[in-house]
Every structure is written in structure tokens, then in C-alpha cells.
């Protein structure tokens, strides 16, 4: 490119750039441009070197000028953290184990709306639960503590009839970036792979549209299921522990309660304790009636254990608990 052409291009950029560059900086750039070397027939290497150096200085001055006078560009130049793992940062034991086994899918999809960028980082599907690790990047520091996204999902283009969602305690990795994960429990298509659509409609108080679509595969992972059929009776109430299921994402317990009485109203308070005396965090629980109103089916899902314990203890209320040996 000839020297005059370089002058012309840079001046054109300066004229069209918004916002307006401060006069003092503009003057300094003009002075730099006027000192560009004139054409010479000899020493072409020196000519190219001088022109390149002068243009670099002018371009650098232009960048500084725009950055100083434009807060939006200054913000854009800030380093956005590269997040490769969410499950590890949140120290989820089961999902960390899944990651060690190479079962985590890296998604790395982004969507931006209302000056908020949502990144879906990684996903794990064991055929029962779908765990999604995500990050939210805000353009300004958020004052509200309400961050959890309001969303809907589709599996192979269809909305499931029933969905339960559990979320963990997220964390801020800097003033503008928040990470967390949620686990979805729903009936999945029978195929080993299906299309998963995630549509986020609101984040905190901000409504918008952050949409994602990607294929999900049911990963074959370690699952331990026991059918203890243990019974405990107190008064008219009988509890039968029918099934305990351990996966990489949860610990599930299913039981029948005959004439549950007050237990029907307190099933959310049932506690599960492992062989180390650690209480497992409850994800969700529910009850349903059978053909007889005196028979209630109780199903609950708790956090995953890192290793299958020697036993579990289910505490229903003071004085009423049952220990389940795991063989």
C-alpha cells in the first residue's frame, strides 16, 4: 500500500469512529501521520519498515483514544474469563467422577440478549437426570440476588408433561460472571440420543430470549440398585423400603407407607444419612396414592454419593428410623 493510501485510510477511520476522539490525541495522531517517510527509489526495506512502524504507532494511539473516550469499548476490552468446567468448580462429587470417566459432554454454546450472555458449558445425561453446567456474564454488576434462570425444555421437539428441577448453590467467579448448574428429572425419549432444546425466558428480573439446541446422549454409567424390602412399624404406621438407587447424579429411595398418619404431611423432612454420618442434601421428594387411600407411595431424590456406602439410614422423625445395609 502506498504512503498516501495509508494516510487516507487512517484519516477515514478517524473521521468515522464514534465517539469523537479528544483534540489533543487527534493532534498527536496527525503529527505522526505527517512524519510518514516520502517515497524513495532506493532502500525499499527501510521504506517498508518506517511506514509499518509509523502506522503501528498511529493505530495504537487510535485504540487508546477510542478506549479512553468510550466506556462501552473499554468494557468490551476487559478480559472475559474462559470457563471450561463448571461441575468441578462447584465441587459436585458425582459429576466430578463422571468427568474422570470421560462421560461429560462439552457444549460451549453462547446466547446474548439484554446485555446478558448465557453460556452452556457442559452437560451430563445418565438417562435419568440431565445436569447442565452454565455461566452468566453480566455487562454491569448485579444488585439483585435473584439470578436463577426461568426456562423451558423440549426433547426431540416435544415439551415433557412433567419436569422437576434441582439447582445447586452457584458462585461468582468475578464481579460480572456467575456459574451454577441445574439438574432436570423428566421422562426421556426411548432413543439413546435425542435433541435437547433449552429456552431461557428470564434471568432474575430481566426477561429475554436465550435459546440453545444440541444433541444429548444417554451415557452408560455406574448404577447400583438394591431392593431391600425392609419394614418398620410403629403403631398403625408401617413403612416398607422398596428400592434404593445410586447413580452419578443422585441417590433415590422409594418406599410405601401404610396408614402414614402425620408422616404424610412431613415427607419433605425425611433425612438420609450415609455411613460416615453425613446428611445427604435433598433434591426433591413426593408422594402419591395407590388404589387404597391408606397406602402412600413415597419417592425422594438426594445428592449423589462419591462412593456407594456400606449402609444408609432414613430418619423419618424422632424415634422412627431405619438402616438399610448396602451389599
From TrEMBL:
UniProt keyword list: Membrane, Transmembrane, Transmembrane helix
Protein name as catalogued: DUF4179 domain-containing protein
Top-level lineage group: Bacteria
Record-annotated DUF4179 domain positions: 51-136
Residues annotated as domain DUF5643: 223-314
Residues passing through the membrane, by range: 49-68
Signal peptide: none
Pfam families in UniProt: DUF4179, DUF5643
Species of origin: Chengkuizengella axinellae
The keyword Cytoplasm is annotated on this UniProt entry: no
Entry-linked Gene3D superfamilies: bacillus anthracis domain (2.60.40.1630)
Amino acid at each position: 500500500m502506498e504512503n498516501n493510501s495509508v494516510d487516507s485510510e487512517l484519516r477515514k477511520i478517524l473521521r468515522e469512529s464514534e465517539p469523537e476522539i479528544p483534540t489533543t490525541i487527534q493532534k498527536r495522531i496527525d503529527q505522526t501521520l505527517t512524519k510518514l517517510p516520502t517515497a524513495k527509489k532506493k532502500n525499499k526495506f527501510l521504506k517498508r519498515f518506517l511506514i509499518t512502524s509509523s502506522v503501528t504507532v498511529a493505530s495504537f494511539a487510535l485504540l487508546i483514544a477510542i478506549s479512553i473516550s468510550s466506556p462501552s469499548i473499554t468494557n468490551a476490552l476487559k478480559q472475559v474469563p474462559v470457563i471450561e468446567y463448571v461441575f468441578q468448580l462447584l465441587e459436585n462429587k458425582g459429576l466430578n467422577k463422571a468427568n474422570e470417566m470421560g462421560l461429560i459432554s462439552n457444549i460451549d454454546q453462547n446466547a446474548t440478549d439484554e446485555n446478558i450472555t448465557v453460556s452452556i458449558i457442559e452437560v451430563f445425561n445418565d438417562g435419568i437426570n440431565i445436569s447442565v453446567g452454565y455461566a452468566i456474564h453480566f455487562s454491569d454488576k448485579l444488585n439483585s440476588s435473584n439470578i436463577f434462570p426461568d426456562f423451558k425444555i423440549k426433547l426431540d421437539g416435544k415439551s415433557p408433561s412433567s419436569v422437576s428441577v434441582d439447582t445447586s448453590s452457584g458462585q461468582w467467579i468475578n464481579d460480572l460472571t456467575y456459574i451454577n448448574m441445574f439438574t432436570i428429572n423428566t421422562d426421556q425419549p426411548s432413543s439413546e440420543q435425542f435433541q435437547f432444546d433449552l429456552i431461557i425466558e428470564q434471568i432474575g428480573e430481566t426477561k429475554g430470549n436465550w435459546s440453545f439446541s444440541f444433541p444429548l446422549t444417554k451415557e452408560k454409567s455406574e448404577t447400583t440398585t438394591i431392593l431391600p424390602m425392609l419394614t418398620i412399624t410403629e403403631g398403625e404406621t408401617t413403612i416398607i423400603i422398596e428400592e434404593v438407587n445410586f447413580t452419578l447424579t443422585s441417590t433415590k429411595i422409594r418406599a410405601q407407607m401404610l396408614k402414614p398418619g402425620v408422616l404424610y404431611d412431613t415427607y419433605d423432612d425425611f433425612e438420609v444419612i450415609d455411613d460416615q454420618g453425613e446428611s445427604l442434601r435433598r433434591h426433591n421428594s413426593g408422594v402419591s396414592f395407590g388404589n387404597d387411600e391408606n397406602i402412600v407411595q413415597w419417592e425422594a431424590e438426594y445428592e449423589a454419593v462419591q462412593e456407594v456406602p456400606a449402609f444408609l439410614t432414613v430418619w423419618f422423625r424422632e424415634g422412627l428410623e431405619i438402616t438399610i445395609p448396602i451389599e
